[in-house]
Amino acid sequence: MREVAIIGVGMIKWGELWEKSLRDLAVEAALNCLDDATVDRVDAITVGAMSSGLFNAQEHLASVVSDYLGKRFTPAIRVESACASGGLAVKTAYMEVASGLSEYALAIGVEKMTDVDGGEATFALATAADQDYEAFHGITFPGLYAMMANAHMHKYGTTLEQLSQVAVKNHYNGSMNPHAQFPMKVTLEQVMTSTMVADPIRLLHCSPITDGAAAVLLTTEEEAKKLNKPYAVITGIGHATDTIALCQRKDILKLAVVEESAQRALKMAGKTIRDIDFAEVHDCFTIAEIMVMEALGMVEPGQGGPATMNGLTALDGDFPINPSGGLKSKGHPVGATGVAQIVEAVSQLRGKAGQRQIKNARTALTQNMGGSGASSIVHILEARQ
Ligand code: COA
Question: Which domains, ranges and CATH numbers included, belong to the chain?
């Protein structure tokens, strides 16, 4: 396989974007990415989107995007793995370049979730849960993560304060991200007393409903070197799946899919978790960030909450997590999230993350999850030049 580099990244401001259509979002992020790369060649397009059918009544999305991007006749595919669709789009683009099939592959993640009302959005999201054993009985994603949070609190003594500190940290980071949907800082008190959604999960423990897109351009490292500017290489990819239903897991407090995907990615990169300078992880609910930290092996099981309180994962901590603001503050347009994690990682590795820049960031890990841990994709990225 050939070495693969990321030479361009593109974001747009996320939020409730009434004035823009689904295709506008994807095309704007893609054009920003090509501008950033200063390259206009695209041999393949991969689009990550979870449910453009239910959110926008638009399937066949890859053709819509390639056409409106002005790339008619370019081979384009849409990939889906629930909230991990964006990570899968990057993996698919990687395979295009690594295999030699394409020289330049563009990965785009997009979702426009606010064209439907809250109930319809919750229904669309819940189609990524197990229909027979979960969704049919009325459980939603806030409900599934609330069960995990309650069990974590019961077994390990994790506190509401610890769950809330994840939101305080991520909103603080997001306050420095011009693309974030909710860039306001929040206090522990505000999080702990925000509206109850699914006990113990409150409004400010949840990622929001978001319209957004992100894009990255991949090519060979050989081509990247010719551009004479900093770039990142993908040195590890780990992808795994697990039972879709929580009730079929031996231990709902262990995100085995994250552990598996992370171990595969680290092995491929020849690294351990101690070699990683920072991570962007899937904090769809604040309990998820705590459980992901444990599954990555950053801390022992049950220690994610105390470590967050002690500042381990803060921007100036020993292992910063979600410098972008994460899904919590930046937003979570489900198909776009995995691509946006890579955008943040590359921006940090190039030293271009502005006020939220992490010092000496050379090696990054991104972790993008589908559902309540039924799929996970981890990428390891390293700075070059
Ligand atoms: N964080 C911070 N503020 C939020 C927010 C969030 N996650 N979600 C909504 N808000 C704000 C809104 O801006 C609005 O503020 P305003 O009153 O000042 O205008 C207020 O809270 C109410 O917003 P609304 O859109 O009516 O909220 P809602 O009650 O319909 O939805 C949730 C809130 C948490 C239920 C919804 O965002 C949700 O379902 N999130 C989870 C999404 C999900 O499951 N994703 C998949 C993960 S696997």
Answer: 4-117+210-225 (3.40.47.10), 137-206+235-384 (3.40.47.10)
